[in-house]
Write a structure and sequence with these properties.
Elements (H helix, E strand, L loop, with lengths): L1 H12 L2 H30 L4 H31 L5 H28 L4 H24 L7 E3 L3 H17 L6 H18 L4 E3 L9 H17 L1 H27 L15
Antiparallel strand pairs: 1-2
Helix pairs in contact: 2-3, 2-4, 3-4, 3-6, 4-5, 4-6, 5-7, 6-7, 6-9, 8-9
Length: 271
């Protein structure tokens, strides 16, 4: 009887664990939004130092990074315990829309695009809509087409592309100028289009680095670089991931097209 009770308690607790991580993902996304709003209110009232503004915007980006980690963990836990469900999938997508759609858009708009008028608002709104479309498509295709790879840039990576420059520049205490404004006016729609594109992105990038010892050396170098220069490594990794996916897609498309000199031979009639 005791074993049955313990087992039943365990069976009740295990399905909740992935959803707890999903809730943490949602909380961090909301914290990022509230932090961005807090900065705007403080700046408008004139009660914020430049150093404080840089630090708070950095944390607004850091909360989204934490959300991405929690989002990765909830899926791994659900698969590990074999408790994937439609509720968990829907809850995860709603949380992702907040953390990787709305939160980066609010951060970018409050940090650099608020002064660019309607065009800046339009750029971030387009990004949010593309995030919603990306997540809706993932919900439909998660059991088949997106089982081994992503169709379109995944929303956590898209959020990384948006916030990585913010975290780098705020860590270096660099005030964004017109070049940064134009970068995000172009980048936000482009990143949104990448999410809803048919470009395939691998779920598990594989690199042949020649055995476990070499892998250990490479891992040690990467970890050391992340510890010493986290913002530089973050922007390097997320943009490299996006570029590699685009490059592989372009190569695949070029290989699939027939050459200009090739002609299809058809049998002549009467021969």
């Amino acid at each position: 009887m005791r074993e049955k009770r313990k087992k039943s308690k365990r069976q009740r607790v295990i399905p909740v664990l992935p959803n707890l991580f999903t809730t943490g993902n949602l909380f961090c996304g909301l914290l990022s939004i509230m932090t961005s709003i807090e900065v705007i209110v403080a700046v408008s009232t004139g009660g914020a130092s430049e150093e404080w503004v840089f630090r708070r915007f950095w944390w607004a980006g850091a909360f989204i990074v934490i959300s991405a980690f929690l989002d990765m963990m909830d899926g791994k836990l659900a698969r590990f315990f074999n408790h994937e469900s439609k509720f968990g999938l829907s809850y995860d997508s709603l949380s992702d829309l907040v953390s990787f759609g709305v939160a980066p858009a609010v951060l970018i708009y409050s940090w650099v695009l608020m002064g660019s008028g309607k065009i800046g608002l339009m750029a971030v709104l387009f990004y949010v809509v593309c995030t919603a479309l990306r997540l809706a498509r993932f919900n439909v295709q998660s059991g088949n087409e997106e089982k081994l790879s992503f169709t379109g840039l995944p929303s956590p990576a898209a959020a990384g592309l948006m916030i990585a420059p913010v975290m780098l520049l705020t860590a270096l205490n660099i005030i964004p100028d017109s070049r940064v404004v134009w970068f995000f006016l172009i980048a936000a729609p482009v990143i949104g289009l990448l999410m809803v594109s048919n470009v395939r992105y691998s779920k598990r990038p594989y690199f042949n680095i020649g055995g476990p010892f070499n892998a250990l050396v490479v891992a040690a170098i990467i970890i050391a670089a992340i510890i010493t220069h986290p913002e530089i490594m973050f922007i390097f990794i997320v943009y490299l991931y996006a570029v590699i996916g685009l490059a592989l897609h372009a190569i695949k498309q070029l290989k699939g097209k027939p050459k200009l000199g090739d002609e299809v031979e058809t049998p002549e009639s009467g021969s």
